[in-house]
Design a protein that fits this description.
Helix content is 71%, strand content 6%. By secondary structure, the protein is mainly alpha-helical. The chain is flat, with a radius of gyration of 25 Å.
Length: 371
């Protein structure tokens, strides 16, 4: 009897239990249900408002499972489909904040956030499933699907950034360990063995993180596909055209890093997508805007890889990257099936090696270079 009483008390209080808080500022436009440690609160925020999530309890905390249980009960007692779908995404945002908080610790491993990452996937899947189910019932949920799609985009960018930052820290640690092994290779076999074991652990963590990044991207893509089917051709095209316009603006701000020809090509594609949208050719608008977006992402990815390569070379003890080389490396992406004006990572490494050779060879090499 006593056990039943305790269970009943937990069940009744669970909807009010949450250890993550949402802070929002902005004008009222969309009602978003957020929870505090004492009660359920409705916070009105606009679509453009930045919502900061305090992670509260995180994976590894003793009461973390109770927090997740409280969310399940809260969802169970939320009967309005729209509110329930939005609540799923609020919980997804909390998972991102928790993952970010845990991975701040330099000793944290990707496995430490496995529960939160899996729950993130479950929450966005729950939201898209509700919307799809409502559409199948004949309910017009295209607008809701569009709202949720934008929110998932925001969360996906954040979780990808968090996982990518963790991966970068692993790569840096890996480079440092390799340098240490090289430094003691001939003088301290025992130390080499110790460092080699540590290197193996770091490499495993890098591979695990790569897999988690891939799984997360695939899941987000699947759920976005479901929502875009519900949105219909017009809203889906509108979303992708707006995204292409935004990325095109970002590209225009990257002066000195991207060729003017690339900027003009992508700008032209963005204009073509807008024209197709205005003519009601939504499939064409979708196709063109997606192509433009992909090209911008390629450019950004290659440049990010180049920055990481330079950063990694500078992090190795006893090795410096000449400022002239760092400043001289510019990376441009593949456009129209060919690489334009790019030095690239490998070429950048060759440049650094070349400069290193010049420093060793003395004035003769320098004079030859000047000529």
């Amino acid at each position: 009897m006593k056990k039943l009483f305790i269970f009943g008390a937990i069940l009744l209080s669970a909807p009010f239990v949450s250890f993550a808080q949402v802070t929002a500022t902005g004008t009222a436009a969309v009602n978003v249900t957020a929870t505090t440690s004492v009660a359920t609160t409705t916070v009105a925020v606009s679509a453009s408002t930045t919502v900061a999530v305090d992670p509260g309890l995180v994976p590894g905390d003793f009461f973390y499972p109770l927090s997740l249980f409280g969310e399940k009960v809260n969802l169970f007692f939320t009967f309005n489909p729209e509110k329930k779908a939005r609540l799923h995404l609020e919980y997804a945002k909390e998972r991102v904040a928790e993952i970010k908080e845990v991975l701040k610790n330099p000793n944290a491993k990707i496995q430490d956030v496995a529960t939160a990452k899996d729950n993130f996937a479950s929450q966005i899947s729950g939201a898209s499933t509700i919307v799809k189910s409502e559409k199948e019932k004949g309910v017009d949920v295209a607008g809701l699907a569009s709202d949720l799609s934008v929110e998932i985009d925001d969360s996906s960018v954040e979780i990808k950034d968090v996982l990518h930052a963790h991966q970068n820290s692993i790569v840096q640690a890996e480079n440092e360990i390799r340098a240490q092994i090289e430094a003691v290779a001939s003088s301290n076999p025992a130390k080499v063995q110790e460092l080699t074991k540590k290197l193996g652990e770091i490499t495993k963590e890098k591979n695990d993180t790569t897999k988690e990044e891939g799984d997360t991207n695939a899941n987000i893509s699947d759920q976005q596909g479901v929502l875009e089917q519900v949105m219909g051709a017009e809203l889906s095209a509108k979303k992708h055209v707006e995204e292409a316009i935004h990325l095109n603006e970002q590209l225009g701000e990257m002066k000195g890093q991207v060729s003017e020809k690339q900027v003009e090509q992508i700008k032209k594609q963005t204009e073509q997508a807008k024209e197709a949208m205005q003519k009601g050719n939504f499939e064409e608008a979708n196709r063109i805007s997606n192509e433009a977006t992909q090209k911008v992402e390629e450019i950004k990815a290659v440049q990010e890889n180049e920055r990481e390569a330079v950063s990694a070379s500078m992090s190795v003890p006893g090795r410096t990257t000449p400022a002239t080389v760092t400043a001289g490396i510019r990376v441009e992406s593949t456009v129209g099936g060919e690489v334009r004006g790019s030095t690239g990572v490998k070429q950048g490494e060759r440049m650094m090696e070349s400069v290193g050779g010049k420093e060793k060879s003395g004035n003769n090499e320098t004079n030859a270079t000047d000529r």
